């Protein structure tokens, strides 16, 4: 079934699931896992046979792009490596296994399409080879294709119906959550049932794919331009009357020492319960597999998993807050095109705690949803960190040098903030991105006072000595205060929450 191209947003609601309903759901999810493995194995087999054929080898040598693509589509059809054929294979497997009461036609087709998409991405080189779902790596979500059959949302009773199973959803009291109320008034396209482990307890949720755009809680400054300079742990923002350098996720405190203790205790437990897997010198025996895990090991694993989940939840919340603050300054965002994989290699610990790549993905999605765009500037041709606009020259600087001395001696400006300013000045109407000195001079005359007022630009001393400059603080936020939209008030609980134990950052299910 062809998906519609209308705007869609997700509304997630917790479900009330008793023990009997949970056993039924776990049985259906296990059947879906086995079905996914069957379709995945068949897809990998068909892809391998297709690639080994002589027709495929000849098609690789074609130079014409259109002829090449048409030939590949024809070969895929001949070897039945298509989404429709694998969906039919999944339906056959489901019927022969007798899972008609567990999985409907739409759920089966979505599972098959999901496996085919993973194998297709692997064939194009976009992702790695997909792995099979095991008992320790189960399936976490099942979705339908429409709200007419299979997993259905009943707005009148606020319940989920799925093959004779009725699951009530937990809704906020009337008048307490305007966003939820407005989202439920939209049409539901299809539903997805998911589960997560929260503090060792399995929690069930339903994700409603609602038609339209979500309600905007904060103001968005449409059409304005914003320059960014994204680093492994900080981000510089320059816009009209705004210039700031902020830290990513200031409330995320990675407990490296505590997690290291848990990991060492887990390693000792594995070595004690699986001595045959290790040599006398403590090294791993090739080909061995650990099969015995103690109760204490499972408790430690749950503790480590819960700590990481809480940190990820707080990181996601902090990223969303910063994205909203940036969009309040403008929706046309200019930033250098960066390799976040290289960030992981060079600044592994910082990237693990701050996740700048995740922030960039979220910013792009929200900006496009608001009618804006992310302009990826060419890094090597512009050389933001080396350019000096008064002299129009490029000078390499070591990474430790965080302040840039202007060539005409008019002042000293913070390096990252200056790069963000130059990014905001790049004219993108032409195909080739380059600096325009006259345009930068006009922009600098308007922005210099803002930089000096915010503390990121100083006059150079007469003696030429370097002054003591302020550094970015973990608690700093981006300059201008954002007004709340009508019908929304401040979160009093969030204002009083203080950073501490990562378990306090969990997004707990409200007691409604």
The tally of helices reads 15
> What general form does the structure show?
globular
Mean pLDDT: 86
Oligomer type? single chain
Q: Structural class of the secondary structure composition?
A: alpha+beta
Largest sheet report:
5 strands, mixed
Number of extended strands:
17
C-alpha end-to-end distance: 38 Å
Give the strand order, joined by hyphens, for the main sheet.
Answer: 10-9-8-11-12
Structural notes for this entry:
The chain is α+β, with helices and mostly antiparallel strands and 512 residues long. It has three domains: 8-211, no CATH class; 218-253 and 303-512; 256-302, no CATH class. Helix content is 42%, strand content 16%. The chain has helices spanning 19-52, 54-60, 65-78, 83-97, 105-123, 178-184, 256-273, 295-327, 340-346, 348-354, 356-369, 379-382, 415-425, 437-454, 492-496, and strands at 8-14, 141-143, 152-154, 159-162, 165-168, 188-198, 201-211, 225-230, 234-239, 242-247, 332-336, 373-377, 387-388, 393-394, 403-405, 412-414, 457-458. The strands form five sheets. The protein has a five-stranded mixed beta sheet. Helix 1 crosses helix 4, helix 1 crosses helix 5 (105-123) and helix 8 crosses helix 11. It is globular and about 80 Å long. It starts with 7 loop residues before the first strand and ends in a 16-residue tail after the last helix. 26% of the residues are buried.
């Amino acid at each position: 079934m062809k998906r519609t191209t209308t705007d869609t947003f997700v509304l997630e609601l917790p479900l009330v699931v008793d023990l009997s309903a949970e056993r039924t759901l776990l049985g259906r999810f296990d059947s879906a896992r086995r079905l996914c493995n069957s379709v995945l194995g068949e897809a990998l087999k068909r892809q391998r046979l297709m690639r080994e054929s002589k027709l495929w080898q000849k098609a690789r040598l074609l130079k014409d792009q259109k002829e090449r693509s048409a030939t590949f589509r024809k070969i895929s059809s001949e070897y039945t490596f298509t989404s429709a054929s694998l969906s039919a294979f999944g339906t056959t497997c489901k019927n022969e296994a007798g899972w008609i009461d567990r999985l409907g036609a739409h759920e089966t087709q979505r599972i098959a399409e999901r496996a085919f998409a993973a194998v297709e991405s692997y064939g194009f080189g976009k992702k790695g080879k997909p792995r099979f779902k095991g008992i320790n790596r189960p399936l976490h979500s099942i979705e339908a294709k429409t709200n007419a059959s299979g997993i259905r949302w009943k707005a009148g009773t606020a319940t989920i119906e799925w093959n004779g199973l009725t699951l009530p959803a937990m809704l906020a009291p009337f008048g307490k959550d305007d966003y939820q109320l407005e989202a439920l008034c939209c049409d539901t396209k299809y539903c997805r049932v998911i589960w997560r482990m929260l503090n060792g307890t399995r929690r069930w949720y339903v994700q409603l794919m609602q038609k339209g755009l979500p309600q905007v809680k904060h103001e968005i400054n449409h059409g304005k331009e914003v320059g960014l300079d994204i680093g492994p742990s900080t981000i510089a923002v320059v816009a009209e009357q705004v210039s700031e350098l902020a830290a990513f996720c200031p409330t995320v405190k990675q407990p490296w020492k505590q997690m290291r203790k848990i990991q060492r205790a887990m390693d000792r437990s594995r070595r004690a319960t699986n001595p045959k897997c290790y040599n006398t010198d403590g090294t791993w025996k090739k080909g061995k597999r650990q099969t015995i895990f103690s109760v204490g090991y499972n408790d430690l694993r749950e503790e480590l998993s819960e700590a990481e989940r809480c940190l990820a939840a707080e990181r996601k919340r902090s990223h969303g807050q910063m994205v909203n603050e940036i969009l309040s300054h403008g929706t046309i965002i200019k930033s250098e095109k960066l390799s976040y994989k290289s960030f992981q290699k060079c600044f592994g610990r910082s990237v693990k705690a701050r996740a700048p790549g995740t922030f960039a993905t979220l910013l792009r999605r929200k900006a496009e949803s608001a009618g804006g765009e992310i302009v990826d500037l060419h890094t090597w041709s512009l050389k933001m960190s080396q350019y000096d606009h008064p002299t129009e020259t490029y000078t390499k600087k070591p990474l430790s040098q965080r302040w840039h001395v202007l060539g005409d001696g008019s002042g000293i400006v913070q390096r990252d903030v200056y790069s963000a300013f130059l990014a905001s000045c790049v004219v993108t109407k032409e195909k080739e991105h380059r600096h325009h000195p006259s345009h930068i001079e006009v922009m600098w005359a308007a922005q210099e006072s803002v930089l000096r007022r915010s503390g990121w630009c100083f006059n150079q001393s007469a003696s030429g000595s370097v002054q003591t400059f302020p550094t970015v603080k973990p608690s700093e936020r981006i300059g201008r205060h954002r007004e709340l939209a009508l019908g929304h008030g401040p979160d009093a609980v969030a204002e009083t929450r203080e950073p501490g134990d990562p378990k306090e950052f969990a997004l707990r299910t409200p007691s409604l």
